[in-house]
Amino acid sequence: MNTNRLEAFSDGVLAIIITIMVLEMKVPEGATFSALFSVLPVFLTYIMSFVYVGIYWNNHHHLMHAVTKVNGRVLWSNLNLLFWLSLFPFVTGWMGENHFETNPTVLYGIVLFMAALGFKLLVHNAIKLEGKNSKVGNVYKNDKKLVGSLLLYALGIAFSFIEPVIGIVMYSLVALFWVIPDKRIKKTLKEG
What is the pTM of this model? Predict the structure, then answer.
């Protein structure tokens, strides 16, 4: 089976996730700019989650260009990733509405960690299907960026129990790693 249906389905789910996140933001009461301050934490959390969904969409897109076929394991791995991403609207709203309190910030980090783990599993199963010397195998072999992200998420979760702002900073560092496009994919696809 080729990747077209998987990619189209994933694109649709990610579009719905973004739509739900923006619809969850409540309009502030009052017509003054100072009224906007009451929704600032929700808006900041939305921005961070929007960036994360964009990062996953971008990396998923590139991954699917490096993959030539899918099987049941790849399909289920993709659904696992989409499950964790589908929780973004919930944890985004909870953390923003509660102004970055400990428990919502910890849960936000857990969902980020599990989504990253889900992406790693998707990559692993794609490599297993296509082979270590395939395009996808060459792109993601020894993926220090993904492993480093998981480590930073775990540290961010731990630090969120002490000071949630430190957790937010660590989660944001991971986003900064991934906002910069991954040159390995373009290079590998050009060579292939």
Answer: 0.93
